[in-house]
Every structure is written in structure tokens, then in C-alpha cells.
Amino acid sequence: MSDCGCEKARQDLEEYLRNEVCKTEHAEIREHLENCPGCRDEALVATTLTEVLARACRESAPEELRDQVFAKLRAVQATAH
């Protein structure tokens, strides 16, 4: 298999991490990441960021914050009419 290179690996990194590339591209990018510390670090950062965001999206906002947001939305809607 041939190395796809840094430019290709970085261009398709998000799709690779979501398994949205064909098997051939997936294998080429995986091989590149195994042999390129810079791209591997970038993939690690992207994976970590995605995991942190996913966890944050599962958490509920504190009730007080939710009440403040809804009150502000109601106030904006009232003045818009």
C-alpha cells in the first residue's frame, strides 16, 4: 500500500474518523497515521475534541441557566411582536 501523504490525510481526517471514506482510502490514511507523528497527533486532538463535545452535549444545563435562557427568549419574542 502507498502512503497517501500528509495533505491527503489531513484533508480527509474528519471523514476518516467518522468512517466515511472508502476502504482503500481508510487503509491508506490509517497507514499514514501509523507512520507520521504529526498527523497522528492531529488525529488524536480531533478524536479527543469530538469525545469531549459529545460528553458535553449529553449533559443538561443547570436549571437556573435554563430558566435565564428561556426568560431572555420570551423577552426577545415579546419585543419582536
The CATH class label is: Mainly Alpha
Mean pLDDT: 90
Structural class of the secondary structure composition?
mainly alpha
Report the principal-axis shape.
elongated
| Helical segment count | 5
What does this structure look like?
The chain is elongated. α3 (23-35) packs across α4 (37-58). The chain has 81 residues and is mainly alpha-helical. It contains five helices and no strands. 79% of the residues lie in helices and 0% in strands. It starts with 5 loop residues before the first helix and ends with a helix. It has a single domain (6-80), classed as Arc Repressor Mutant, subunit A (Orthogonal Bundle), CATH 1.10.10. The mean pLDDT is 90. The longest helix is centred in the middle third of the chain and has 22 residues, at 37-58.
Entry keywords:
81 residues, mainly alpha, Arc Repressor Mutant, subunit A, 0% strand, elongated
Short description:
The chain has helices at 6-11, 13-17, 23-35, 37-58, 63-80. The N and C termini lie far apart (63 Å).
